[in-house]
Write a structure and sequence with these properties.
Immunoglobulin-like; 5-stranded mixed sheet; 4-stranded antiparallel sheet; 2 domains; 1 helix; mainly beta
Length: 192
C-alpha cells in the first residue's frame, strides 16, 4: 500500500508539472509564410524606382520582417503569423517616403506569389471615395497636396491644449518633394 501511494503521488506531481508546462510554456506552432514578391510601377505613375527598395511587413504595430528588392524589384520574405488581424506591406527607399503598398488579412498557402505596385492600386467605395487598404473605410482618407509652403492648421481645445495638423480644407498637406503617395489615412497614419 505504501508503495502504491508513493507511485500515485509521483504520478500526480509529474502530471501537474506537464500540465503547467503545456498551459504556460508552449504555443501552438504555426507554419512560416513565404511571400515571393514582385514590386512594380503602377501604370498610371511610373516615377518611383523599384530596384533596391526596402520592403517590410508590419502587423499589430510591429515589424515582422524586412528585405531589400533586387534590380528587377523582386524579393522573397518569410513571416510567422500568430494572431495578427492584418499584414501591412510597406516600402521605403532613396527618394521614397514610407509608403503602404498593400494590406493582407489571410494567406492562401505557405508560399504565395504576389505583385505589389508603387503607388498601390486604389479601391473606391460606391460613392467614388478612395478606401484605405488597412481599415477599408473612406471617412478619414485625405488626398495629399504637395506644395512649397504646406499649410499647418492649429487647433486649441476647450482645455487650452494646442495641436497642429497638416489637414487643411479636406487635404493632407505635404512638402514640395513630390512622392508617389496620393492619399493619407488619418486613422492608420499611412500614406498610399
Amino acid at each position: 500500500m505504501h508503495q502504491f501511494n508513493k507511485h500515485l503521488r509521483l504520478t500526480i506531481y509529474i502530471s501537474t508539472i506537464l500540465f503547467a508546462a503545456l498551459l504556460l510554456g508552449f504555443r501552438f506552432l504555426t507554419n512560416p509564410v513565404t511571400i515571393i514578391g514582385h514590386l512594380k510601377n503602377n501604370s498610371k505613375d511610373n516615377s518611383a524606382f523599384v530596384d533596391r527598395v526596402i520592403v517590410f511587413v508590419k502587423a499589430d504595430n510591429k515589424i515582422l520582417a524586412k528585405v531589400l528588392t533586387d534590380e528587377k524589384g523582386d524579393f522573397e520574405i518569410t513571416i510567422i503569423p500568430q494572431k495578427e488581424k492584418s499584414f501591412d506591406f510597406y516600402c521605403t527607399g532613396l527618394g521614397l517616403d514610407t509608403l503602404l503598398i498593400s494590406s493582407v488579412t489571410t494567406f492562401e498557402s505557405d508560399t504565395n506569389e504576389m505583385a505589389f505596385y508603387i503607388p498601390g492600386l486604389l479601391k473606391r467605395n460606391a460613392l467614388g471615395k478612395v478606401i484605405c487598404p488597412i481599415c477599408k473605410r473612406a471617412d478619414k482618407v485625405y488626398k495629399i497636396q504637395y506644395g512649397d509652403a504646406p499649410v499647418i492648421t492649429r487647433h486649441i481645445s476647450n482645455t487650452g491644449d494646442t495641436t497642429y495638423s497638416p489637414k487643411y480644407k479636406g487635404t493632407y498637406q505635404e512638402s514640395c518633394i513630390i512622392g508617389p503617395a496620393k492619399y493619407y489615412c488619418d486613422r492608420d497614419k499611412a500614406k498610399f
